[in-house]
Amino acid sequence: MQKWRFTRPLLAIAFALSVTVVSLAQIERQNRSFEILTRRMDVDVDGAPNAYGPPGTQTLDTLKDAHYLNRAHNEIVGYLIDEHNRPIPQGPNDPFPGYYISQTAFADIQNQNERDPRRYVDARNINYVVRGNAARRRGVQVGDFVSVYSRRTGRSVFAIVGDTGNPTGDEGSLHLLQDLGYPFHDGKNDSVEKPEIIVRFYPNSNPKHQFFFTQAELDEAATKLGLSRDFSAAASTIKR
User: Fold this and answer.
1) CA dist 129 to 10, 44, 134, 171, 229, Å?
2) DSSP of 193-217, one letter per residue?
3) Distance in angstroms (rounded) separating the CA atoms of residues 167 and 157
4) From CA 36, how far away is CA 62, in angstroms rounded?
5) What are phi and psi of 152, to 5 degrees?
6) Which of 49, 97, 121, 153 qualifies as a cystine partner to 181, CB 3.0-4.6 A?
């Protein structure tokens, strides 16, 4: 009897340790990640309601940049068009009436109205990166969480995979670059031209496709998942 009283606390401790080890292993599996060093980082303004508009309007980007790979002869991917390839304008109750409806690959699944500009990730308010081929091949989905770090500014932030369409993945939202400390204002001429931004991808980290209207909401969700913005141990050589 005495022996059982002595061993019972030890068994409880052993059980607690085993649970802790299992929990840590589960967290590690859930938060598996990999890092990519971008060669550059161009500003993406897609999803912002004032990204594109008729000639003469004050927009965040040029109409040429709304074409695939920024080439005027390619298809338009930056804003919605009708069956006659004409831009679909925003209505009188939309944020920028008359401007074009700029879309992103990641959208609010609760909002089935494709012509609602609020359905898409607003590049002015949300940190997002563009998924390139390397990330796609490793299982990254639109909507997944990422952490982003600038070697120049020393800042790190949470973001999501908000768009596709650039095979290199060397694009990030206007808000992302501003949040990292770059003095950018639009997508016309601003870009990071050196390989100094690291993106840490968390594949399948947003399976329910949770949508965010504010950066604060995104940050809170990433923190609750136990994701990290710590890049102090980032390797000097990062895979592309």
Assistant:
1) 49, 8, 13, 6, 15
2) -SS-EEEEE-TTS-TT----SSHHH
3) 23
4) 28
5) -75, -50
6) 153
How confident is the model over 122-167, as pLDDT tens digits?
999 999 999 999 999 999 999 999 999 999 999 999 999 999 999 9
Structure tokens at 89: 């304008």
What letter represents residue 180's amino acid?
L
Contact yes or no for 176/168 (Cβ under 8 A): no
Percent of the chain as helix, strand, coil, to the nearest 5: 25, 20, 55
**pTM, rounded to two decimals:** 0.85
Q: Which residues contact 84 (CB under 8 A, 6 or more apart)?
A: none
Task: List the Cα angle 170/140/129 in 5-degree steps.
Answer: 30
- Number of helices (H), then strands (E), in the chain: 4, 8
* Alpha-carbon gap, residue 131 to 195, rounded angstroms: 17
